[in-house]
Amino acid sequence: MTVQTNRPCWGNGVTGAALTSHYPIPPLPRSTAIELKIPERFLILILLIIIISNLLKNAVEATPRGGKVEVHAHAASGETRPHLIVQVRDTGPGIHVEAMAHIFEPFFTMGKPKGTGLGLYVSHGIVERHGGELLASNYGSAGGAIFTLKLPLDGTDNVETL
């Protein structure tokens, strides 16, 4: 696997890290059934990576050349149980008021030519199924959007089958 940092990764001048895998995966026959038994804590880690990657992709696409995307994460314990809080902020135009009510609906897109409108919908569903919240807001008068991911941290080690 190759990691390259501080180079334009998404075509709009925003820099970051890019991962490239050099391990080809052969196609599986159509009749092949796969059952994976993964401890829930690892499954949640995989899902977190998918959700945060989606939020980052959206933020980068919304951010103009020379803009900034930030990720902040911390644990919060002031609620009934501890939570992981991850915020993804960008310096793009923000989310229009009309769009805010539909942002987590399936097939809703804000004009991206390659977007399917499913990324936020799927991410929102995953977070809710794990007892968390995914919230969208604008960054005050400075502009930009903020997506806040809030997931409970508990000590369970259940096994979930994919």
Form type: globular
| Low-confidence blocks of residues | 1-10, 15-21, 156-162
Q: Compute the number of helices.
A: 3
| CATH architectural group | 2-Layer Sandwich
Q: Write the CATH homologous superfamily.
A: Histidine kinase-like ATPase, C-terminal domain
Rg calculated over all Cα atoms: 18 Å
Mean pLDDT: 78
- Portion of residues within helices: 10-25%
CA-CA gap between termini:
26 Å
CATH topology: Heat Shock Protein 90
The side-by-side strand order for the widest beta sheet comes to 4-5-7-6
Largest sheet data: 4 strands, antiparallel
**Would you report the number of β strands?**
8
| Strand-residue proportion | 25-35%
The first-level CATH class is given as Alpha Beta
Q: What is the element string, with H for helices and E for strands?
A: EEEHEEHHEEE
| Total domains | 1
Structural class by helix and strand composition = alpha+beta
Please tell me about this protein's structure.
With about 160 residues, this protein is α+β, with helices and mostly antiparallel strands. It has one domain: Heat Shock Protein 90, CATH 3.30.565. Helix content is about 25%, strand content about 30%. The protein is built from 3 helices and 8 strands. The protein has helices spanning about 40-60, 95-100, 120-130, and strands at about 1-10, 15-20, 35-40, 70-75, 85-90, 135-140, 145-150, 160. A 4-stranded antiparallel beta sheet has the order 4-5-7-6. Strands 1-2 form a two-stranded antiparallel ribbon. Helix 1 (about 40-60) packs antiparallel against helix 3 (about 120-130). It is globular and about 50 Å long. It starts with a strand and ends with a strand. The relative contact order is 0.19.
